[in-house]
Amino acid sequence: MFVLKVTLLTLLMMAPGLLVYADTSVTCEGNNAVLTCGAGVLNILSANYGRTDSNTCSAGRPSNQTTKTNCYGTKTLSEVSKRCEGKSSCVVPVTNSVFSDPCFGTYKYLSIRYSCVVQHTSVTCEGNNAVLTCGAGVLNILSANYGRTDSTTCSAGRPKGQTTKTNCYGTKTLSEVTKRCGGKSSCVVPVTNSVFSDPCFGTYKYLSIKYSCIVQYTSVTCEGNNAVLTCGTGVLNIFNANYGRTDPTTCSAGRPSNQTTKTNCYGTKTLSEVTKRCGGKSSCVVPVTNSVFSDPCFGTYKYLNIKYFCMIQHTSVTCEGQNAVLTCGVGVLNILSANYGRTDPTTCSAGRPKGQTTKTNCYGTKTLSEVTKRCGGKSTCVVPATNSVFSDPCFGTYKYLSIKYFCMIQ
Fold first, then answer.
1. Residue 326 · residue 377 · CB < 8 Å
2. How far apart are CA 89 and CA 83, in angstroms?
3. pTM over 0.70
4. Residue where one domain finishes, among candidates 91, 117, 143
5. Among the three residues 215, 246, 276, which one is the final residue of a domain in this structure?
6. Which residues have C-beta within 8 Å of that of residue 8, sequence separation ≥ 6?
7. Are 147 and 251 contained in the same domain?
8. Domain count of the chain?
9. Do 238 and 151 form a contact (C-beta atoms < 8 A)?
10. Cα separation of 93 and 266, whole Å?
11. Number of other CB atoms surrounding residue 402 within 10 Å
12. Which domain holds residue 246?
């Protein structure tokens, strides 16, 4: 078996419960990809079954099996996520029977980028409060149920008739817990019928929640300077922002006391402005000035405080006539950009005459709005890469649908 495993980032955050590392697993066709996270659970970031270079998994192969380097399996991410997402380990056979064959005659490999997150479980008996906390991180709710799935949990002192029903599921539990807790550093959830309704009358229930913590960053920039945010290969998701002053010490050096004593100064449009300039980008620069945010407290020396986290950006490329399949597991899709057309001569060019791939300034003007309409805010979607969906931006050219997106906590 030939398997490559390369550590990309061995430590992202030392705080317990946060994202711990990100890996790339590369497995040659005909073998099994084995992913494991020890005490954590798998978070699949991206995956491709195909070939994007001529060297990987090429040993002993004739050159004609490794020269095609624009081979993408459009359903790879959804299949790997289905088999691995949220599990502590998984085995994925790297075969055409699992993924279908995206490039006949080419010897392929499965490349998976994933991270390991520590999964927490909270169990709270009916009538009490569930308290979730992530310290410096923010909560990502993986699953939740208000009901009963065994006869022993929260059974002390209860008559048998209240604990024997073990197929009791509250259908709206996950959405309710996510609404109250998702993206927050801590939350309190009352475990009562008034919050979740009663999925099994007469049964004594409990609330079981599985969740992970995501790294949250804070940027503080004094007035008159530039705030610089960066996420490397990820994209920025702005969580909170304020241009003003909420304490007397931050950005106070060399300032007279009358410029720093007002500590209830909030810029009401700060979050929308920072999100507009930074949201979904890998980096951004924000001038910390009144001209950008207006002045929420005249005479006070202000600063810009931003809380954000980094999300991995995915790219989906689907050849004309096929279906683009986007999936986000427990998150929802946020579409960053999309184009149905052609911007290079090599993508989706196999077996095509030269005349169908030479036009490289082909842009579908309505692509982004159409993909957003079909996919934005959903956990998964299917988009046919066809002229009937997008119309034809360049007649006679063989096109492809390229989508950039990230997954966001709802």
1. no
2. 10
3. no
4. 117
5. 215
6. 22, 23, 24, 113
7. no
8. 4
9. no
10. 54
11. 22
12. 218-311
> Rounded to an integer, what is the distance from CA 311 to the centroid of its chain?
5
Q: Mark out the alpha helices in 166-279 (DSSP H runs).
A: 173-181, 193-196, 270-278
Both 110 and 13 in one domain: the answer is: yes
333: enclosing H helix or E strand: strand 332-341
Kind plus residue range of the DSSP H or E element containing 79: helix 76-84
Do residues 374 and 301 share a domain?
A: no
143 and 80 within one domain: no
CA distance 17 to 47: 25
Nearest to 171 by CA among 145, 190, 205: 145
| 118 closest CA partner among 77, 144, 92, 86 | 86
Q: Give the pairing of strands 40-50 and 109-118.
A: antiparallel
**241 and 263 share one domain:** yes
- pLDDT tens for the chain, 410 residues long, are 333 333 233 233 333 344 434 567 899 999 999 888 766 778 787 789 999 999 999 999 999 999 999 999 988 988 998 898 878 789 999 999 999 999 999 999 999 988 777 678 899 999 999 999 987 678 878 789 999 999 999 999 999 999 999 999 999 999 899 889 987 889 999 999 999 999 999 999 999 998 877 777 889 999 999 999 988 767 787 878 999 999 999 999 999 999 999 999 999 999 999 999 998 788 999 999 999 999 999 999 999 999 887 776 778 899 999 999 888 765 678 888 899 999 999 999 989 999 999 999 999 999 999 999 999 888 889 999 999 999 999 999 999 999 988 776 54
- Pairing status of strand 109-118 against strand 21-28: antiparallel
Question: 113 and 1, same structural domain?
Answer: yes
Helix (H, G, I), strand (E, B) or coil at 259: helix
Shared domain for 274 and 297, answered yes or no, is yes
What is the number of H-type helices and E-type strands within the chain?
8, 20
Which residue in the block uniquely carries the two structure tokens 């998701």? 237
How many Å from the N-terminal Cα to the C-terminal Cα in the chain?
A: 40
| Cα Rg of the chain, angstroms | 25
Instruction: Based on the fold, state whether residues 196 and 251 are members of the same structural domain.
Output: no
Could you tell me the CATH number of the domain that includes residue 406? 2.60.120.740
Residue 58, amino acid: S
DSSP code for 388: H
Q: How many CB atoms lie within 10 A of CB 15?
A: 15
Task: List CB contacts of 177: < 8 A, sequence separation 6 or more.
Answer: 141, 144, 189, 207, 209
